[in-house]
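go over this chain:
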Amino acid sequence: MVGQDLPESLTLEYKEKYSYSLVKSVAAMANTYGGLILVGVTDQPGPGRLVGVPEAAVVQVVNACHERLEPPWQPEIIPVPMSADGPGLHILVVRVDPARAPRPLLIDGTAPIRLPGRNATADRARLALLFSESPLPPRGAGRRLPAPDLPTTSEGAPAADFIIRTGLLIPVDEAATWRPLSERAVEALASSLGSSPLQPALLRWCTDMAIGGFNPFRRSGYNRARHARLAWRPAVGIESLYPVEAIASAQLPSSYGVAASALQFTLDVIIRANPYLTAISPTETVLRTAPYRLPVDRLYTTLDALLATLTDKTVIAALAGMAGIDPVIMPLPANLSTTSTTGSSAGTRRT
């Protein structure tokens, strides 16, 4: 980022050293779209802009945030050593996540907000909007995606071996809350998922079950102006019973212009190896007595691929475009959930 000489923006600010104004920038970003503050970096591009600060500057930032912010709040601060054998100087990466801040954050009785390259004070309407936001979960609880439900048959029996879900809760730019998801944005997301680390992991599941060919991520099922659903499937299936399936879902709030809105992106991987093999060979007793064993190493590979996909640059860029934000403020994956059969025909287990 520093090497690219990016200018200061709505979500990026440079500070040569700790200063009184840094806390105001923390509050402004928290009250807007979040962002990064790099301490120990001058705002002048070119060589020599990395000047560094002592590691003790972390204590200054933390103390100032607790003393000046109302309510007291501390952003994530990551000290990065400039060199292993240098004079002990660091670049402080101050990461402001608006989803974790108790908005509005006040300083000296006012609520700062972030404008491109500078801070300003929220007017009456913006302040009312901040106060009208839904309260955050208790401290430490974080924001989580809902756990997935295991697919079932018409009789209520499990119709899959397991399902894995992870995803992102992405802050949405105010302008994006008033527009639907565009065809171009959805196609960009489908293309990025098709070139992500997830696709090779899905193909390995198909190889295990001697299945060749696949249909890439494309629109499937429920798709509306503010909701897009994409599915990846192998080229074989019986009445929508696919042995391996990945479902990506991007959903904006159902109401236009909702305050404190977030784009919810979920990515599910569903494995139906045993139900599928039983369906195509119902008379083979071997499938009843010795079902397909799900390889543990393949499960680990799939988990790694899911997390790598959520940090893939092209996927991040596509989702940031949907939300109308700078990719630099994209959050980390919200959580990861699994739901599987417990071995009985009706039981399930969640983790």
